[in-house]
Amino acid sequence: MDTAVQTPTDEVLMLAYADGDSDAFSELYARHRARLFHYLLGQLRDRPLAEELFQDVWQKMIHARAGWKPDAAFSTWLFRIAHNRLNDHWRAARHRPAAPADADERTASLADTCTPELLADEQAQRLQLRQALAELPPEQQEVVILRLEQELSLEEIGQITGVGRETVKSRLRYAMDKLRARLSE
Questions:
Q1: What pTM did the predictor assign?
Q2: What distances in angstroms separate CA 32 from CA 57, 75, 83, 105, 108, one per listed residue?
Q3: Residue 5 burial class via C-beta count within 10 angstroms: exposed 0-12, middle 13-18, buried 19 and up
Q4: pLDDT tens digits along 26-48
Q5: RNA polymerase sigma-70 region domain: which residues (predicted)?
Q6: Where are the alpha helices (DSSP H) in the chain?
Q7: Which of 6, 18, 110, 122 has its CA 20 to 30 A from that of 184?
Q8: Shortest CA distance to 46 belongs to which of 91, 87, 98, 93?
Q9: pLDDT tens digit string along 96-134?
Q10: Cβ distance 45 to 133 under 8 Å?
Q11: Which of 115, 120, 118 is nearest to 104 (CA)?
Q12: Burial class of 52 by CB neighbour count within 10 A (0 to 12, 13 to 18, 19+)
């Protein structure tokens, strides 16, 4: 007899939360908080602003819980809320904020257990990648972050961004070509 307890899916947890199970919300939050925050931080490059939007996304999720339907994966729905919140932010700001003035110092001060030589090389590569990523158009940046950092499928990215799979694929291809060209300079 198999006595192993199966972990409930996100969708089962969301339905339970919609029915009032606060423990289900705690589990969903624990599963998705890091990925969601890194997605927002990657888009905004401003920790306090990312923290603010992070809270907004969870508030929107809480308010929308009663109407949630498991038509798509919970993570896709959550990231769609985040995508929409980012769009609202950009519309309100009417510009894409620049990287913080101390971005180089922050990058240089990252702790690592590698040798100083490897650390310096990795920091330089990360900085170069971030700079190259910042030069991409916002829609290309978003698909790169969702694909490479969040490891989402093209279909999930399409659902989050509201465009078709082929558009996502095209944006990703153009972005990767630009990144390769920029990083090989």
A1: 0.62
A2: 12, 8, 15, 29, 28
A3: exposed
A4: 999 999 999 999 999 999 999 99
A5: 28-94, 132-181
A6: 10-18, 22-44, 47-64, 74-93, 103-108, 116-134, 138-144, 154-161, 165-183
A7: 110
A8: 98
A9: 456 677 777 776 666 555 566 666 777 888 888 888 888
A10: no
A11: 120
A12: middle
Angle (deg, nearest 10), helices 74-93 and 154-161: 40
- Checking if the pLDDT of 53 tops 90, the result is yes
Amino acid, res. 119? L
Distance separating alpha carbons of residues 18 and 37, to the nearest angstrom: 23
